[in-house]
Amino acid sequence: MTITTEFSISLRDPTLLDCRGLINGEWRHANNQKTFPVSEPATGSVLHPCADFGHEEFVQAINVANIGYKSFYNVMKFPSYLQLIVEAKFCHSTVAIILSLENGKTLAEAKEK
């Protein structure tokens, strides 16, 4: 995927730039199909739309996240932790680019996050 602003940036893993929200393990669009623009602070260029969830979806997401956290905390074992670290390192550069564009951070600062 190429993000078009005043310049082109290619993402190593474009699936990390998703306009949907994750609720109960499922990537979803807002029930009302509304979105809001995510802009680059430096130029105001719109990078992509993002799902604009309502109150009901927000409450559902919080409730299932709370349940999921409790079960994840009890199940998390060292091999699973290592797998998460490996996956995080794989997508590190793509996430840094997205953070840099969306938050106006320098790329070096975004990589630290």
UniProtKB/TrEMBL annotation:
InterPro entries: Ald_DH/histidinol_DH, Ald_DH_N. GO terms for molecular function: oxidoreductase activity. It comes from the Eukaryota. This is Uncharacterized protein.
